[in-house]
Design brief:
Length: 171
């Protein structure tokens, strides 16, 4: 049942990508013309975006702007200019449920027909950006955050990441 749901979501994303290269999740319209992916950001939202929890940050040359939750040191990281940069202190990955299913396909690319980066979800555009899920004070309002959760904190106006132990904030 879970794989049917995932296939349905992937198919829907591909169809929407081919139509307008803009995707709204849990909402009817996209905020602005320069948005490639947008989430339902109603008042009281407590849903964030969960990063992939990898055993070890990928070697080689991932695309700049790649985000992961690295279970080898329990840190959220971003790849930039040939290096992984930590966005959190060491957290706790004990709540992470390992994905034991075989990976199939190349993931979903939004914004172009054939993406140049590898990933489960790749957003590529020269003139559009993703709007993160917006949550007011996630450290107070998200009761059971999952390790690797990211959002935009509307109260502090910062990028917020949960490392499994604490929320970390970036301006």
């Amino acid at each position: 049942m879970k794989s049917i749901k995932n296939i349905s979501i992937a198919t829907a994303l591909i169809v929407f990508n081919s139509l307008c290269a803009q995707v709204a999740i849990e909402k009817e319209t996209i905020d602005g013309n320069s948005t490639i992916l947008d989430f339902n950001n109603t008042s009281g939202n407590t849903k964030g975006l969960i990063l992939p929890a990898v055993q070890v940050a990928p070697a080689g040359s991932p695309a700049n702007g790649t985000f992961v939750f690295d279970r080898s040191d329990d840190k959220i990281k971003m790849y930039e200019n040939n290096t992984w940069k930590s966005l959190s202190d060491a957290g706790n990955s004990s709540a992470v449920i390992a994905n034991s299913s075989d990976e199939t396909g190349n993931g979903v690319v939004i914004g172009t027909q054939a993406g140049s980066a590898e990933g489960v979800l790749v957003l590529e555009s020269e003139d559009k950006a993703m709007i993160l899920p917006k949550i007011s004070s996630p450290h107070l309002n998200v009761k059971n955050p999952y390790p690797g959760m990211v959002c935009y904190d509307t109260a502090s106006k910062t990028f917020a990441v949960f490392d499994g132990t604490l929320w970390n904030y970036w301006k």
